[in-house]
Amino acid sequence: MDIVELTAIIEGVLFATGDAVEVEKLAEITECTADEVTEAAERLAKAYNKTDRGIMLTHVENKLQLCTKAELYPYLSKIAKNRREYKLTDTQLETLSIVAYKQPVTKLQVEAIRGVNSDHAVNRLVEYGLVKELGRLDAPGKPILFGTTDDFLRAFGVDSLDDLPEIAPEHVEEFREEAEEEAEERLNVKI
Asked: Which CATH architecture has domain 90-190?
C-alpha cells in the first residue's frame, strides 16, 4: 500500500470513529507497520497545518485523533448545546497535579499529600473528564485508583505524561509546608 492510500485510510478511520485510535491498532487494520502509520499521520498533520482547515490531527500518547482547531471553539460552542466550559479551582488544580504526577493514586493518598479531604475535588475532576478510575488497589477495602485521561493531555497541550515538567525537589518541600499550613488554618477555623 502506498503512503497516499494509507494516509486516506487513516483519515477516514479517524473521522468515522470520532475518537482517539492507537497507532498499533491502525497498523493492525491496515496491515502496515507502526512506523508507516506514523509517517502517514505526519503527512496528514502537515496537510491540515499547511492550509486554513478547521480540523487538525493530534497525537496523544500512542493514539491519533482528528479534532477541531482550538481557535474555532467559540463557534463550535454556539452549536454544541451541552458543551460547558469548566474553570478549575486552585483546589482542583492542586488535586489534578497530584493525580498526574503520582498516578495511579487513591483518594486517601491524595489527601495525605494535600492534608485535607479531597473527595469533592476528585469527583469534579472525574465529572470533567480529566481524571478516571484505573482500577482498584490490592489492599483492604480495595480503594479506587485514579489517573489522568487523554482529555487531560489535550487540555494541557502535552502528548504524554513524560512531557509534564519536572518538579524541583525544593518546590516539593515548599508544597508540603504550604499544605500543612493550609490544613492547620482549616482546623483552626472549624474550632
From this structure: Orthogonal Bundle (1.10)
In the chain, where does DSSP find H-type helix? 3-17, 23-30, 34-50, 73-79, 90-102, 107-114, 119-127, 150-155, 169-190
CA distance 70 to 157: 11
- Classify strands 131-136 and 21-22 as parallel, antiparallel or unpaired: unpaired
**Cβ atoms < 10 Å from Cβ of 90:** 8
pTM: 0.56
- 153 pLDDT band, cuts 50/70/90, is confident
CATH 3.40.50.300 fits 3-77, yes or no: no
Compute the distance between CA of residue 156 and CA of residue 153 in angstroms, rounded to an integer: 5
Of the candidates 131, 60, 124, 132, the one whose C-alpha atom is nearest the C-alpha of residue 86 is 124
- For the chain, the residue count is 191
The segment(s) of the chain belonging to CATH 1.10.10.10 are 3-77, 90-190
Residues 152 and 100 sit within 8 Å (Cβ to Cβ): yes
pLDDT class of 141 with cuts at 50, 70, 90: confident
CA angle at residue 54 from 68 to 163, to 5 degrees?
Answer: 45
Amino acid symbol at 21: V
